[in-house]
Each structure stands twice: as C-alpha cells, then as structure tokens.
Write a structure and sequence with these properties.
Strand order of the largest sheet: 3-2-4-7-8-11-12
Oligomer: single chain
Helix content: 10-25%
Number of helices: 4
Largest sheet: 7 strands, mixed
Structural class: alpha/beta
Shape: globular
Length: about 200
C-alpha cells in the first residue's frame, strides 16, 4: 500500500499537473483503517472522491477529458486491486463513473504494474470505447516509486520502476514521464478473446 507516513526517501518536489484537472478516487476503506493516510490524501488532492463511503458515484468522471489525470488509490497486488481484483470489475467502475476520455490514468497501488493486469485493463478500455493517452502504475511495493509524507520534511519521493502504457490519444505531456518515447503501446482487445490469466484471478 502507498504508505504516506513512512520515513523513507529523499527530499524532492513532485511535478505539478498543469495540463488540466487532477481527480483522485479512493477505492479502499482507508477512512476507517488508515485515517492518517486518508487525511493526507484529502489534503493533497482537494478534488477527491471516496467511492466506498462517499455516497453516489455514478457519473463522477463525466467531466474529465484528455487533458486530465485520474488517480486511483487502493491496496493492491500484482493480481489486481483490493476491491476490483478482476480487470472487468474495475472496468465496471469506469463505466459507472462515465469515463469516456482521459489523459492519464494513474494507479497509486502497490505492484499493480508487475504483471499484465494494467495491460489487460488498457486493452479492454480501448475495446469498450474508453480512450486514454497513458496508464501507469508501480511495479514494486510502496517502498519504491511513490511519494510519501515525511512528518519532518514534508513530501518525499523514492525512485522506482513504473509501467507506462500508451493508448489511442497520442500526445506528450511535456515535463512529465508521460511522453510518447516512454511506455508500451496498447491495442484494443479482441471481443472474442478469452481471458487468459490465471483462473483464480479471472481477469
């Protein structure tokens, strides 16, 4: 899990997203299990939504477009999110939220990029008409590649490996990691292609 309060890493100033809106969706029970982390997320991302305990979530991403960034915060593993283990489960959320186009879909979720979960999700998004420029997520646990809230120094960062996938909206977000020279190109998934992941994950 993205441990904001861990005293780890070096002092650094994170990039500010200047291209459009930044919306954070909390897809976990942090409100009750990790209240300090929850409070920090609310402060860092004023435009946040708690979809488990925040009331109606239908249509909450309808106003986002290819200039914007959507951040997902959740416990996870390389096999999926805690409350959306299968890619189809998360795809259901995206459709419920009425997401049509997005610049960057970023997962603050441990290990989610380690295997093929993000690749399969991106292919299914394109298949189902949800366009994007980039999808990204860490290939490691919260110790690497995340921002942390250091009580003594403020926001800190530890470098780690990220998986970056490119979608069907070609563009460069200059000054960020989201440029066309980075990442793996994703293509729409064949509607008739069976799910090939391990049976117990059923992606």
């Amino acid at each position: 899990m993205w441990d904001f309060l861990r005293l780890f890493g070096r002092r650094n100033i994170p990039a500010v997203w200047k291209q459009g809106k930044v919306r954070c969706i909390i897809l976990d029970d942090l409100k009750y299990t990790q209240p300090d982390n929850y409070a920090f997320i609310r402060k860092k991302y004023p435009d946040y939504r708690d979809v488990l305990f925040g009331g109606v979530s239908r249509g909450l991403c309808a106003d986002l477009n290819e200039n914007d960034k959507l951040i997902i915060v959740s416990h996870s593993s390389e096999f999926g999110l805690r409350y959306a283990l299968r890619t189809d489960d998360f795809l259901h959320y995206l459709k419920l939220w009425d997401l049509k186009r997005i610049g960057v879909l970023k997962f603050h979720c441990c290990n989610i990029g380690e295997r093929d979960w993000l690749n399969i999700l991106g292919a299914k998004m394109l298949r189902d008409g949800i366009s994007f420029s980039y999808i990204s997520g860490p290939c490691s646990p919260g110790k690497k590649g995340h921002y942390y809230h250091n009580i003594h120094e403020g926001l800190t960062y530890t470098p780690g490996k990220y998986k970056i996938l490119k979608g069907n909206i070609p563009r460069d977000f200059t000054g960020t990691r989201y440029v066309r020279k980075n990442g793996i190109q994703v293509f729409p998934r064949d509607p008739n292609k069976p799910n090939l992941f391990r049976p117990f994950t059923n992606n």
